[in-house]
Specification:
There is one protein chain. By secondary structure, the chain is mainly alpha-helical. The chain has seven helices and no strands. The longest helix has 28 residues.
């Protein structure tokens, strides 16, 4: 059976495109899963997560991770409104105690203490072991230079 050169060329180019797309996704995830503290800049982490979110191929836990990681990077940069927006999206995908704590901390830094307290309370409902840590946070005076 003789194979058409055209079909072989289409198959080869399709395989190359799929391989390149997988490599790009892998690079995006390497950036998105990095930390601003661990050698990956906050901007690179945000770019990697944004690429995964905008790809439209992420769902469930992976989409949650992209929004959560981007929120954390934005939080660490002091971009609290953008962090809150990303935490909102992460929570819509998967109501996770860590996302509620992160959003609560962003609200805390904006001096929106009622919203922060509501998120801390929800985090404790989801994960009661957080109670001692979150309890300490809610008793702290507001200090934007505290670093948490």
């Amino acid at each position: 059976m003789r194979r058409s050169p055209f079909l072989l060329a289409v198959a080869a180019s399709t395989l190359l495109w799929v391989t390149e797309a997988a490599a790009d996704a892998s690079q995006d995830w390497a950036l998105c899963n990095g930390t601003a503290v661990g050698g990956v800049s906050g901007e690179a982490q945000i770019a990697g997560c944004t690429a995964r979110i905008q790809s439209g191929t992420e769902h469930g836990d992976s989409l949650f991770a992209a929004f959560y990681n981007r929120a954390l990077a934005r939080y660490l940069k002091g971009e609290y409104d953008l962090a809150i927006s990303d935490y909102d999206q992460a929570i819509m995908v998967k109501p996770d105690s860590d996302a509620f704590v992160g959003r609560g901390l962003a609200y805390f830094h904006k001096d929106e203490l009622n919203l922060a307290n509501a998120d801390f309370t929800r985090a404790i409902e989801l994960k009661p072991k957080l109670s001692p840590m979150v309890g300490r946070l809610t008793r702290l005076p507001f200090n934007p230079d505290a670093g948490f």
